[in-house]
TrEMBL record:
Coiled coil: none annotated. Residues 67-97 form the RanBP2-type domain. This is RanBP2-type domain-containing protein. GO terms for molecular function: zinc ion binding. Transmembrane segments: none annotated. It comes from the Eukaryota. It holds the Pfam family Zn_ribbon_RanBP. Keywords: Metal-binding, Zinc, Zinc-finger. SUPFAM superfamilies: Ran binding protein zinc finger-like.
Length: 99
């Protein structure tokens, strides 16, 4: 998978790893960039085991926005769609299910 689009955002994480700076790593883990990395991982590999992570192309969204509840990640554009939809709301790609 091509990670070049994320290259410019990886510097702080790589610095945290290099210097073993837990606070810097945790700060990066709270960023929108970590959410993007999780979506990329979910789209290309078995589900991660981290609590609250994207699992099997789905994610539980916390209280806040107008559309809360379980979501599925589009395999093409990574948009988080409502579980009721059979195709992506943004790009109309059909939902891929494991069933």
């Amino acid at each position: 998978m091509d990670m070049l689009p994320m290259k410019e955002y990886m510097g702080p994480l790589l610095e945290a790893i290099r210097t073993k700076n837990i606070e810097l790593a945790e700060e990066w883990a709270r960023s929108e960039h970590w959410a993007t990395v999780e979506q990329l991982i979910a789209a290309s590999s078995p589900p991660p085991s981290r609590p609250g992570s994207v699992v099997g192309g789905s994610v539980s969204v916390g209280v806040g926005g107008s559309s809360s509840g379980p979501k599925w990640t589009c395999s093409l554009c990574t948009y988080l769609n409502s579980m009721e939809l059979r195709e992506c709301e943004m790009c109309n790609t059909p939902r891929i299910t494991n069933n």
